[in-house]
UniProtKB/TrEMBL annotation:
Organism: Pseudonocardia cypriaca
GO MF term (any one): S-adenosylmethionine-homocysteine S-methyltransferase activity
Chain residues that bind Zn(2+): C200, C263, C264
Coiled coil feature spans: none
Protein name: Homocysteine S-methyltransferase
Length: 291
């Protein structure tokens, strides 16, 4: 989302990142969703990753206004899905980690100094609003540590909506340094979590993580890494070369992934190539997971 918005000329250095355009230029968010659908995507992830009551309050937006913006993020994706036509498209409401609201790179470190109960209390109200807007599921994404994953799994219970849980990782560990086997086990017994996997990680880390997630949880697995560049939190920019190759997605599918895509610095052009690579791999193309 951010990559495509930047390509359209938007400065996203604001602390709200892509969520700023929910306020200023929502039509641009809808246009980017449509661009990804036109490129071959089946699932849109809403522009709510960095939208929070606290972050929006800092911009002078009260709670009622924040709730309207969160619902708008879902509606924009839903409208783009309806306008795309053809096969069924899905809307995943993004629930970013607590670290995202800090806008200091904390989502790549975790260990915020908050316990599971406090993190649950922080996440649940936003999740309730997003769920009420009618997405197909919640995307609990870019989770850096096990404590936050436990809080999110607790918070999603009772919402009446399925969710996926996706970690940001470094090698065979979470960004906070915990073993991935422990991280994936958090979701194993949670009926609301219908898929588990990784995102916003280096592409090279995907195959082993996918295989482990499949073996630990027995659930469908997803993978949407970033381009392989590194994030400079102080300079608020990406560094290093891109290493995202659409053809690698065939290996992710071979390792057990049911949903594949791209995160930061992966735009519609890369998704078009990825869709072509996967759908031409001989693997069946499947829609929404049905328990």
């Amino acid at each position: 989302m951010a990559t495509a918005l930047e390509a359209r000329g938007h400065d996203l250095s604001d602390a709200l990142w892509s969520a700023r355009l929910l306020i200023d230029e929502p039509a641009e968010i809808a246009a980017v969703h449509r661009a990804f659908f036109d490129a071959g995507a089946d699932i849109a992830i809403t522009a709510s990753y960095q939208a929070s009551f606290e972050g929006l309050a800092a911009r002078g937006i009260d709670r009622a206004g924040a709730e309207r913006l969160l619902r708008r993020s879902v509606q924009l994706a839903r409208d783009a899905a309806a306008s795309a036509g053809g096969r069924r498209r899905w809307v995943a409401a993004s629930v970013g980690p607590y670290g995202a609201v800090l806008a200091d790179g904390s989502e790549y470190r975790g260990r915020y100094g908050l316990g599971v109960a406090a993190l649950k209390d922080w996440h649940r109200p936003r999740m309730e609003v997003l769920a009420s807007a009618g997405p197909d599921l919640l995307a609990l994404e870019t989770v850096p540590d096990v404590d936050e994953a436990e809080a999110l799994v607790d918070a999603v219970a009772g919402l009446g909506l399925p969710a996926w849980l996706s970690y940001s990782i470094d090698g065979d560990r979470t960004r906070a340094g915990q073993p991935l086997a422990d991280a994936f086990a958090v979701a194993a017994g949670a009926p609301e979590i219908v898929a588990v996997g990784v995102n916003c990680c280096a592409p090279r880390d995907v195959p082993a993580a996918v295989a482990l997630a499949r073996d630990i949880t027995g659930k469908p697995v997803l993978a949407y890494p970033n381009s392989g560049a590194g994030w400079d939190a102080s300079g608020r920019g990406w560094t290093g070369p891109a290493r995202f190759a659409a053809e690698d997605a065939r290996g992710w599918v071979g390792a057990g992934a049911r949903i594949v895509g791209g995160c930061c610095r992966v735009g519609p052009a890369e998704i078009a190539r990825l869709a072509e690579a996967v759908r031409g791999s001989g693997k069946p193309h499947r829609g929404r997971y049905r328990p």
